Amino acid sequence: MDSNEVMIKIESLTKSFGRIKALDDLNLEIKRGELLGIIGPNGAGKTTAIRMACCILKPDFGDIKIDGISIHEDPIRIKSMIGYLPEEPNLYERFKAKDLLKYFAELYGVPKNDINGRIEYLLELVGMTERKDDRINTFSKGLRQRISVARALVHDPEIIILDEPTMGLDPATANSIRDFVRNLKGNKTMILCTHYMAEADSLCDRVAILNKGRIIDVGTPGYLKSKIHGDVILKIRIQNIDDVNGYKEQIMKFPSVAAVDFVDGEYLISLKYRNEMSEIVELFGNNVNSINTKEPTLEDVFINTVK
Amino acid sequence: MKFTSITKWEFKNTLKSKKFMMIFFLQLSVLFLMIIIFNSFVTNIESDNSVSITPSLSGFASMDVLDQSGLFLKLINPADISIVPLSYNASMSNIAEGKTTGFLYVPGNADQKIRSGQTIDMTIYLDSSDPKSSVVRDEVNSTTQIISQSYSNTLTDSVVPQNTTIPTVKQESTGESLPLQIIKKVMLVILLFLPLLLFGNMIIDTVVGEKERKTGEILIAMPMSQAQVIIGKSMAVVLTISLQVAMWLIILLIAGFHIDNPLLVFIFIFLTSIPIIGITSVVAAYSKNFKEAGIGLSIAYMGIVGFLVVPVLLYLSRKSFIANISPMTIVMRIFSGESIPPTDYGISLAAILIVSIISYWIAIKLFERDDIMFGPRPGILRLIYDLITFKKF
Question: Based on the domain organization, do B142 and B200 belong to the same domain?
């Protein structure tokens, strides 16, 4: 498998719903075997973008090529290559778990002789073997999500697209889903839409930040964090906030300082290196209430990028 | 052929559904009840002592009469048949054009001949393809009996002069009465078409249900076209209706109803279910929720019932060729044992085909539209505009 080969190529993708522009000239490339995370605020166009990749929605303009095939040319073929897990695990309530998988296996065109074996394997994989004869309407949200994951993988797709797979799940179930994604990493090309920055940080090879239908930035989590902030963020809470701008000017004079923000009585100082940290603190004298440091996270990147 | 998988699973789930089975058996119970009521009704009509609940059917059938003696014109019952005095040629032309059901010729000196004890020869010409012809024949027969009884009594009185009692004349009907024919030929047909409307709404449950349960998204993500989804689901409903109609036919045959060519009747009802499900699919594809679909369905079904029933009445009253556009007319004619020319079948089949193509095309196009599936949904006027201008549609 050539990991540099582009598996998904999104070109000038544009889509409007009435007067609302959901996607505005979106361009993105995803390599074979890569796990790309898409983060962005609500209404950024994440779900619209992945629905188009799954040929559920049609773009107003632009194209998506999956393994070189355009969604305009052969959507049926593209659909058969993708395993899609939508945001809400809505399933047919009256189906038994194994019947549900069988139904979708037939729709995906899995050979009849392989269906039962594949279902047994997936039920085992998601830990649902003992509940295979139970109806979906007896399942908790976590179990529904597990069976949804099995449903998305029933045809052993080359590409897996997951829209908020851990949303609303308890920490244990969310972790099991994350482990599951981690195990698939490298074997499948995956897109993961998530609101959980830590999830994107820990799982994704690259992360794309989407806002107002456009890609704001894309890169590895490390690259994004270093690009926005320095190595460390110094947080200084002060007592007297009368001379905020005066302090800001003085702080910015230090060569190690990349950026300064004042939020809720607290200075957030991004430092490129740590050498001048004590000198910066001394600037405030007795006006200091508390001092903290923290490593920059993807959440900081997200907030800084989309604000 | 992925739609066959959808059909298979939808049909399987329908049969497994307790709700469906309950409705299914409830309908069969209603059918049994209707058969009992029907039999009681028929017995009531045929009974001399019954209370008449027959609606007025004045002018239902018409007959031309050439009767210079005025014998029949005076005595024939005008309640059911409109009598028009006309010549032979004009009447024959009327029969050919379907304007009248029959022509009765009574010799000019009939009255004098009967009085002198001679027999007379009357001639009745009937359009045998017209289901009302038996009504006309019955009325002529009963009038003949009335005249016969009347003259017999007069002759008896003349032989025994002291007997001065006025003869009482009672009209008796032979064969099937007109209301009975309407019940047999129209009501029974309506009864058999009923499952089409009772189960047609299942497509609402399967299509609108996908939107309400938000399962439509994963279904569209399957490697098949939206057309296959609509056709797959529709075929499951058509199969369910076929099962129901077959059972109703079997029950009616067991209950003693005479149905000429039940297989042909079944095939026609089966074919009729296809466009009806198509129209219902259009309502389902456009509707956002069950409430909206219910309103849409009521309006659509009023139109469908009108399209099916009005031509039947048109055929009964005027024997109009265009009335064959309704498959219900064809089924009624099959019930009557008429020999139906291929052109009459053709017009009905063409109507089924055209309505099916148009309705499924619209349903599929609606289901394919992003704005209808995921919003914001366009209004009906906007859709018509898009259709006219070929924009997006």
Answer: no
Query: Are residues B308 and B202 part of one domain?
Result: yes
User: Nearest by CB to A84, which of B2, B221, B370?
Assistant: B221
Using a CB–CB cutoff of 8 Å, tell me whether A297 touches chain B.
no
Task: Report pLDDT digits (tens) over B147-187.
Answer: 777 777 776 666 555 555 544 444 444 445 555 666 666 77
Please check whether residue A93 touches B, CB under 8 A.
Answer: yes
What pLDDT, in 10s, does the model give residues B36-51?
777 776 666 656 554 4
**pLDDT tens-digit readout, B312-366:** 888 877 777 889 999 999 998 887 777 889 999 999 999 999 999 999 999 999 9
Q: Does B218 touch chain A (CB under 8 A)?
A: yes
ipTM above 0.90, yes or no: no
Q: Which of A54, A88, A107 sits opposite B5 (nearest CB)?
A: A107
**Among the listed residues B332, B221, B229, the one whose alpha carbon sits nearest the alpha carbon of residue A160:** B221
Give me the DSSP letters along A86-151.
-SS----TTSBHHHHHHHHHHHTT--HHHHHHHHHHHHHHTT-GGGTTSBGGG--HHHHHHHHHHH
Q: Give the CATH number of the domain where residue A106 resides.
A: 3.40.50.300
CB contact under 8 A, A88 and B214: yes
